Structures are given as C-alpha cells and as structure tokens.
Amino acid sequence: MAAADSAPAPSSSSPECPAAPSMPTDPDFLSCVLQPPTPSSSSRPDADYAALRRLLLRRKPPSALQHRMEWRCNGKGYVAYRNFLLRRLDGGSAHSTPSNSGRWAHSPGPALSEADSWSSIRDLRTNSGLSRTVSISSKQSDTERHVRFAEPAYSFVGMHCIFDSCKTSVTILKFGRASSDLLAYGAADGSLTVCQVSEPPSVLQKLIGHSKNITDFDFSSNNQYIASCSLDKTVRVWEISKGTCIRVVYGVSSQLCICFHPVNNNLLLVGNANKEINATNFSTGRGISKLNFDDAVTALDVGHTGQLIFAGDAQGYIYTVSVNSHTGSLSRTHKNKSSKSKSPITTIQYRTFSLVARCPVLISCAQDGNLSFFSIATDAKGYLTLICSLKLASRVQTIRASFCPLLSLEKGEFIVTGSEDANVYFYDLARPKNSCVNKLQGHGSPVIGVAWNHGENLLASSDSDGTVIVWKRAKTN
C-alpha cells in the first residue's frame, strides 16, 4: 500500500499544468491509479483488482497498528492473527464488552446439537466400529443460553473422526508441532499410535516397545521423531516414518514427563519419579546434566526462547529452572506453590502472551482439581505471580488441561479440560463465578487428555476406555 501514499502528481513547475495536491486521499482515484494495465489477453481491465483495492483502501482501519501491537504474535501464525483481526473489524456482538466478554453460544452457522449431528455421528460410529451409545451436545440449558453471546471461533459442528482401536486408557495425546493433521496418543498398555486426521483419517504407525503406561511424549521440531517416556523406567526415541525405535535410555525410576528443547532440538528434558530433571543428548542418549528437586517431577514445559523450564512436582510445587541452550546445564531459580493442598501437578503449559496478563503466562492443573493461572516475569528469571485460580472436583485419574489461545484473544482467559463425568469442559479462568462456558458430550468414560491442532480447527480428546474423539470446529468465514 506504500504506492497509495505517494501517488504521482503533475509537476508544479510545468506552465501548462496547475499544481496538484501531493497526497491525494480519494480512494476511488487511488484505486484507479493503482489499477494494473489492461491484460494482453483481454480488452477489459481487471475489475476484481480495482474493486479489491477500493475495498482495502476504504476499510483500512486507522488503529491497525495498535491492534497488531496488542496481538504480540501470541506464538501463533497467520491463521490465528487473521481471525483476531476479523473479529475486530466485523463489529457487532463479536466485540468484547464488559457484558459479553467471550461468552459462548450458537453461531449464526451450524452448531453442534443432537438433532443436527446424529446422522454424521452414526456414520462415524459405523466406520470406526464404535458400538456403545454416544450422546452429543454442546447446548446449554435455556436459562444459561439466553445470557451467552456468540463466539464463532469456538462453535463445534460435531465429530470429525473417532479412533477406538486402543483397548486401554489413552493417557496422553498431542498434535504434531505446527501441524493440523498429525496426531499421536499414548496408552496404558505402553503403545504409542500415530495418526493422520485429514480425509480419510487413518492410523500411520503403532509404536510398540514400552511395557507399561506411557506417561508423556513429545514431537521433534520437524515431526520426524517422537520421544516418549513410561512407567517402565525408559525413554524411547522413535523414527515416525519407519515406525522403529532408534534409541532407548534406561533410568532407575519411572519417567514421568518429557519435552524437546525448542531451540536446541538435540536436547531432551525428562522429569522422573527420582526427583530429577535430566538433560539428555538426543543423538547419543547420554545424560548431559541433571537437577534435583524435593519430590517426583510430574509435569513440565519450556518457554519459547528455551531459557526457562517450568516443572511441577508431586507435592503441588511449581519450579522455574534456567537452562543453557548450548551446554544443557540446569539451575533452579524459583519455587512456587500452586495451591494450599499437596496434590500432584498433572499439567504445566506455557503460553507466549496473554491479553489478560499482557505478558507470558502459565497454567497448572493439579490432581485435586485446582487450576491456577500465573503471569511470568521474564526479567526476574521466570518468577510466577498467581492471577486467578479455579477449584474443580477432585480427580482420581490424571486429567490434563490446555489453553484455548484463539478464544482468549477476547476478554478472558479460556482453558479446556477433561473430567471424570465423561465431558469436555471449557472454563474462563478470569470469571470465578459462572466460569464454565461450554461443554462437549460424547465420551462414555472419564476424559483424560485434550489437545488442539495448530490451526485450532480440531480438538482431540481421549478417555479411559481407549477412545479418541477429534471434534470439528465450525467454519467462521
């Protein structure tokens, strides 16, 4: 659009031509100036190009720079940023106000309901061999629904696909890094299944090697490898394309959580029941360094710069750890209590930016149902400040939670979590009262894991019966 700001004007020194303004502002005039020459294959000008230019010039918002400053990238790409701007520009009920900040309801398009979704769900059940009764609904009661406003980014149209080949509890599932198609899930029988969810959904590999429960796994940055850990005291590295285990690292205790370093992908970080985080060389399988804690390390995540690790233990404490991206050396900087109880942390998740906190943030989920939302002071070596918390029912299962980044672009801080009543719940942590804003019903047993794909058009959830459901979000444009 730089050409629009400096359109050529007749020279003021010419005696035949009067002076013209140097900065013309009429959009129609500018669009004609910017219109390309007539194509050689046609005698008509490109009308679509001119119309598009007129539209862009007329709708160019004066505060676009401010909107982009508010966005702060949020760790996401163009799709999320586009949706953010569309909600800003469309006006009406999509805007956040104190009375309708991020509330949920049915969008003008199709919404998930029993009547609308039964035919497609019946087909999915038939194709996947799922024989038990499934009830699907994301409706609230009439008394709840009339106070909830439209949030088109999180309206669901039903199930995209179902994977039910696993016969034991699916304890953990994740989409590939920056991937909307690659999904993997680990089970209590030690198996790790890699799937594609695009049409047609299919199982790509079933990775067999662990002898006990898969506690965690992570994709490498290029999605060529998976590193998994288990209660069988081993860490295994898998080459996805071949479906083979290329390395086994033996430990002395149960390996409970694992992640690749985001900057140095040759660095694996593993928390275990021996009260340690080990930094391991991915290529050789050799330990580089380790750091001791007060109890078993049950969950961890790494900041996007790779300089800070956040780890939760079996007593409900959250630690901030500094890591050297080159050498892998670890040092503890802060120790924080997530709640008053001494309950194991089941989820630690870092996020680059939050509109509520205006800085990096962290959520933690504990076995006793405590959800905590922290701001991160990066200039103070990752010091955590509790912003708000939410108390849910205590859990027997190790149930996990996840941020909802797109929805959180509106006023509020939304997360999704499984539950032991077989539902998937969405909560606004910034709204202590009436914090539950939606739920998805479809599982027949406790929902343990939840995960978004990269574009956040698909949400995957897993349960203790071994069923994985991929939910499809409604299109909004």
From TrEMBL:
Top-rank taxon: Eukaryota
Keyword Cell inner membrane: no
Signal peptide: none
Compositional bias annotation for Low complexity: 1-23
WD repeats (start-end): 207-248, 440-477
Pfam family, one: WD40
SUPFAM superfamilies linked to this entry: WD40 repeat-like
Protein name: WD repeat-containing protein 13
